[in-house]
Amino acid sequence: MLQSTHQALAPFSAGAAMAAQLPGSVVLGHEGDDYSMFLGSKCAQQATNRYLTTRALPAPGTICTD
């Protein structure tokens, strides 16, 4: 799951709760409050693309800050 840390309508804790219900999933956090983190964060893009091509998940607790 990819989620910003400060989204007004989707608290970061909700992402963690959803990931806990999906076996084998983690939350990749992005420091900020927007919904377009994939478009503006190289870290989020690289982690997402790595998962889609190799199925390698980011380490639990990873937060992108770019």
Cα radius of gyration in angstroms? 11 Å
**Runs with pLDDT <50, length 5+?**
none
**Shape estimate:** globular
How is the biggest beta sheet arranged?
Answer: 3 strands, parallel
Secondary-structure map:
Layout: E1 2-4, H1 12-21, E2 28-30, H2 37-40, H3 42-54, E3 63-64
Parallel strand pairs: 1-2, 2-3
Could you walk me through the main structural features you see in this protein, from its secondary elements to its overall organization?
The protein is of the alpha/beta class and 66 residues long. The protein has helices spanning 12-21, 37-40, 42-54, and strands spanning 2-4, 28-30, 63-64. It has a 3-stranded parallel β-sheet with strand order 1-2-3, covered by helices on one side. Helix 1 links the parallel strand 1 (2-4) and strand 2 (28-30). The longest helix is centred in the C-terminal third of the chain and has 13 residues, at 42-54. The mean pLDDT is 90.
Task: From the structure above, extract its key features.
66 residues; three-stranded parallel β-sheet; globular
Entry summary:
By secondary structure, the protein is α/β, with parallel strands linked by helices.
